[in-house]
Design brief:
This protein has about 475 residues and is mainly alpha-helical. The protein contains 21 helices and six strands. About 65% of the residues lie in helices and about 5% in strands.
């Protein structure tokens, strides 16, 4: 069935042939909004049963809090645990406030340790203790292991439930064991982890080798090298390893070389997505914790800090302008053209900043290539600066018929765009060296630099080229100049 066009009206809930599963995410949202508005509880339940836990979580995060509670009450009990694990912490917290420990135990009984640990992070200590007591011993140990790691460490993201075999057994025994435990492997499994008697990781056993070699062959004869990740490594560094090595999963070992879990590609994708979201929010001066449908006061509070910082930088730029009050008072054209200089520098710097921060996030900037990039951006800024300086000078000449004003605006744009490009790469590199997230504050610093450099160059040149020439004119000619 073809996807409706964006401007198409939401299908009516009364149309019997409408199947929400055939529509994209936006239309599922529109359809559910209609059901919520009509308070069609049975229809909401029927609709949600056709969605995956990922889709339900996304839909819940697309509603204000009061509507989330209504929708949550209609989510089938059998998948509530999976849905909770997929939700952001800020969305999950209000939904769990009135859920008893007994209900949480029911939700989590079929979940893996990763999901249980994530859900229990948002409950009180007493509820956590009650739920932990209902878990089987193996799962309880795994959850406790995950909770020993910091939020930024690989260990808190790894899957502790791993499939491992010993090096000193035959392929026949491995296949027999897998057949007896047919729920161990999923459709994406391609390798088994091989350990020795002391739980030291030795490498990987390919499922292809497991099948094609003689069944009396020992596992130790077919071990492949594994790319391992330390459990205390920063998860961002682990994501960079996944990208550079193009791997789907990696065994996680501790400082003693013992196998403690595995890090999966889907977990890394979640980290990368979270990092992208965080970078976008930081670049805009928005708190990382702010969600789209957060309460009004919460959003206002989270944004006020950077608005205050921006006000301080704006006042600094205004102070620079104030130093040239005399020339602005005498030549109105300068006040008209001044925003152009700041705007051109701002966009040039933002272009460079965006590319550089993305490169830093991807692990592509470091060592000697930083100097090369700095030189590149210097020349890109200079070339674009000269091109647009000529264009703007020509426009100013047509507008004001004054060669000095045209020269001032042209030189100022060339200077500011060059400085903006250089600042766009040097500021994030400087912040990174100071262990400050470039995405968090680089844009504010860049705006300040481009404003100050733009105004200083523009008004400074105007003072030299225009104000001095005005002072040299006879008094009777000054009045004629501004008529």
């Amino acid at each position: 069935m073809p996807t409706p066009m964006p401007n198409q009206e939401r299908p009516s809930t009364l149309q019997g042939d409408y199947n929400p599963a055939e529509y994209n995410a936006e239309y599922k949202l529109l359809y559910l909004q209609g059901l919520v508005a009509d308070k069609a509880y049975e229809a909401i339940t029927e609709f949600l049963t056709k969605q995956s836990e990922y889709e339900i979580a996304n839909l819940l995060e697309s509603f204000p809090t009061q509507n989330r509670l209504l929708i949550w009450a209609q989510v089938p009990e059998s998948i509530k645990g999976e849905v909770l694990a997929e939700l952001d912490v800020d969305t999950r917290q209000p939904l769990m406030e009135n859920i008893s420990s007994k209900e949480i135990s029911l939700f989590t009984q079929d979940l893996d340790a990763q999901d249980i640990s994530e859900i229990l992070d948002t409950v009180t200590e007493s509820v956590r203790t009650s739920v932990m007591a209902t878990l089987d011993e193996e799962t309880r140990v795994q959850v406790n292991k995950l909770d020993t790691y910091e939020d930024w460490e690989v260990g808190s993201y790894m899957d502790p439930d791993i499939i491992q075999v010993r090096e000193d057994i035959t392929l026949e025994k491995v296949q027999h064991w897998l057949r007896e435990n047919d729920d161990l492997l999923d459709d994406e499994s391609q390798e088994l982890l091989v350990v020795d008697q002391s739980q030291q990781l030795l490498g990987l056993l390919s499922l292809v080798d497991l099948i094609k070699h003689h069944q009396t062959t020992l596992v130790s004869e077919l071990i492949d090298t594994a790319i391992t990740i330390n459990d205390r490594l920063d998860i961002q560094d682990a994501a960079a390893i996944f990208r550079s090595e193009d791997i789907r999963f990696a065994p996680v070992i501790n400082s003693h070389g013992e196998l403690v879990g595995q890090l999966n590609g889907e977990d890394i994708m979640e980290i990368i997505q979270d990092d992208v979201d965080s970078t976008m929010k930081n670049l805009a001066g928005v708190s990382q914790d702010e969600e789209l449908f957060a309460p009004i006061l919460t959003s206002a509070k989270s944004r006020s800090v950077w608005l205050g910082i921006n006000l301080c930088t704006a006042l600094l730029a205004a102070a620079v302008i104030g130093q040239f009050e005399e020339v602005l008072a005498q030549v109105v054209a300068l006040a008209i053209l001044m925003p152009v200089v700041a705007s051109m520098g701002g966009i040039a710097g933002s272009q460079t900043l965006t590319v550089v921060i993305r490169g830093m996030a991807m692990g592509q900037i470091g060592g000697s290539n930083r100097v090369w990039l700095l030189n590149k951006e210097l020349w890109v800024g200079a070339i674009n600066g000269i091109i647009w300086a000529i264009i703007m000078a020509f426009i100013a000449q047509l507008w004001f018929h004054d060669i000095k004003i045209s020269a001032v605006i042209g030189f100022a744009i060339a200077i500011n765009m060059t400085a903006a490009n250089v600042s766009g790469i040097s500021i994030p590199l400087m912040l990174k060296r100071m262990n400050i997230d470039p995405a968090l504050s680089a844009s504010v610093i860049l705006t300040t630099v481009t404003d100050i450099v733009g105004f200083m160059s523009f008004l400074g040149l105007a003072s030299v080229l225009i104000l001095q020439s005005i002072a040299e004119l006879p008094n009777q000619n000054i009045e004629l100049l501004f008529i």
